Amino acid sequence: MLQHENPQRQEGQTTKAIEEQTAKLPSQLFLYAALGSMAVSLALKCAGHKHTALFVGQWAAPFLLLGTYNKIVKTQGHDQHDR
Predict the structure, then answer these.
(1) C-alpha closest to that of 25 among 35, 36, 33, 15
(2) Quick one: CA torsion of 33, 78, 4, 10, rounded to 10 degrees?
(3) Which domain of life is it from (predicted)?
(4) Spatial contact of 56 and 40, defined as CB atoms under 8 Å apart
(5) Which residue of 23, 46, 49, 65 has the fewest C-beta atoms within 10 A of its own C-beta?
């Protein structure tokens, strides 16, 4: 039996609410946020703010992960039992 076929492993109400809201966001938003954080990081580095540049530059990976999650939510949605 596949995991999504197990009725005891359905998503909770909080997860459903989060998925409904994140599915409303365009997928490109997360890509632009990642690119923006890299650009701001570069600008900070050029301005001599080394530690702040590193901090802001590390935002790119979480933005891309959130974009991947957003895309999965849009294509897969909630548990198959809820459809």
Answers:
(1) 33
(2) 110
(3) Bacteria
(4) yes
(5) 46
Task: Look at residue 9 in the predicted model and tell me its pLDDT.
Answer: 63
* pLDDT (tens place) for every residue of the chain, 83 residues total: 455 555 666 667 888 888 888 888 888 999 999 999 999 999 999 999 999 999 999 999 999 999 998 888 888 766 554 55
Q: What would the two tokens of residue 21 be?
A: 């809201």
> What is 16-77 written as a DSSP string?
HHHHHHHTTS-HHHHHHHHHHHHHHHHHHHHTT-HHHHHHHHTTHHHHHHHHHHHHHHHHH-
SS3 category, 11: coil
